[in-house]
């Protein structure tokens, strides 16, 4: 497979106006949502009501596709931030902070603390982290009661606590067959779509072919059809997570290579995108979705 030879960076214009406001322009052609009916908790009660109103007890809930999303960010995209983000944008897909599967499993009597959210926050994606398939499956099952719209597995976190000792996050990119198995277990325990958020590589495991191998294996051997690509590799040489979001160079050409080489999959671009002009440029260049992290938080009225 060849590189796309496409560099988005050059086509990015200066920061524009409100990215959230612009997202209102899109027509509603949202995907069908069929949630889980097992809900008895405070924050998910309305989810149950919505679903139980319709024929056969299920209402198709329509959202815009995830053309624009706000990234999962530990300690940042908490309930308070997401409530604010939803006031600003009706349609942006909001991601939770990463929650370790072990936390969900071990706190199963205290789940509201970790998983409850206001129904206004839909569409919302739960990001989980972990490398124990049994716990990933169980955590997904426990999360069903909260009616998240998608379950995402973190394959991009370079924090030593996660990628080193914890052996999950971006370390998982080194074992695509395991990720496929994990994603199959997650998908088997939920009715909503599943997705993977990853980097373009780790250390010297950073060729485009190795990235393709990861995407090929995960998409072929699990139901994962949506990938969010943080378009820089991770360095596991002891630099901090913040440095790992700045030092490795962005290689958008990898992202556009994936768009070309896996036409049946859905790809969301992430990393270094800071304004509405850049969001629009990425969409015009073919990205199915655009995810903003720091810009959506630091300059929420872009
Ligand atoms: C404070 C902070 C916490 C983050 N926590 C997570 C996380 O929990 N899960 C994850 O997949 N990425 C996490 N990220 C990475 C972002 O989701 C995103 O991939 C990264 O910031 C690059 O996008 P950006 O340039 O638009 O910020 C975090 C980033 C920041 C700034």
Automatic annotation (TrEMBL):
Top-level taxonomic group: Eukaryota
Entry keywords, A to Z: NADP, RNA-binding, tRNA-binding
Pfam families according to UniProt: Dus
Species this chain originates from: Arachis hypogaea
InterPro entries: Aldolase_TIM, DUS-like_FMN-bd, DusA
Taxonomy of the source species: Eukaryota, Viridiplantae, Streptophyta, Embryophyta, Tracheophyta
Domain DUS-like FMN-binding: 70-298
UniProt-recorded name of the protein: DUS-like FMN-binding domain-containing protein
One annotated GO molecular function: tRNA dihydrouridine synthase activity
């Amino acid at each position: 497979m060849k590189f796309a030879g496409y560099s988005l960076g050059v086509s990015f214009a200066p920061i524009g106006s409100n990215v959230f406001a612009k997202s209102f322009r899109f027509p509603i052609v949202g995907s069908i949502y069929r949630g889980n009916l097992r809900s008895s908790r405070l924050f998910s009660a309305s989810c149950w009501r919505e679903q139980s109103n319709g024929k056969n007890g299920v209402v198709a809930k329509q959202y815009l596709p995830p053309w624009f999303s706000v990234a999962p960010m530990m300690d940042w995209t908490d309930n308070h931030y997401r409530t604010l983000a939803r006031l600003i944008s009706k349609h942006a897909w909001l991601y939770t902070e990463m929650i370790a599967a072990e936390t969900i499993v071990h706190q199963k009597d205290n789940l509201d603390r970790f998983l409850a959210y206001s129904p206004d926050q839909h569409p919302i994606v739960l990001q989980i982290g972990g490398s124990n398939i049994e716990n990933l499956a169980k955590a997904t099952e426990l999360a069903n009661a909260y009616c998240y719209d998608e379950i995402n597995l973190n394959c991009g976190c370079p924090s030593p606590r996660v990628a080193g000792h914890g052996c999950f996050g971006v370390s998982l990119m080194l074992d695509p067959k395991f990720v496929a198995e994990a994603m199959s277990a997650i998908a088997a325990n939920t009715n909503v779509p599943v997705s993977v958020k990853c980097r373009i590589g780790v250390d010297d495991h950073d060729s485009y072919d190795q990235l393709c191998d990861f995407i090929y294996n995960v998409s072929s051997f699990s139901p994962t059809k949506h990938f969010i690509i943080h378009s820089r590799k991770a360095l596991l040489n002891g630099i901090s997570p913040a440095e790992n979001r700045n030092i490795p160079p962005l290689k958008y050409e990898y992202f556009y290579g994936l768009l070309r080489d896996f036409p049946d999959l859905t790809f969301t671009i992430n990393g270094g995108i800071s304004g509405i002009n850049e969001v629009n440029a990425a969409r015009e260049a073919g990205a199915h979705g655009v995810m903003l992290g720091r810009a959506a938080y630091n300059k929420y009225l872009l």
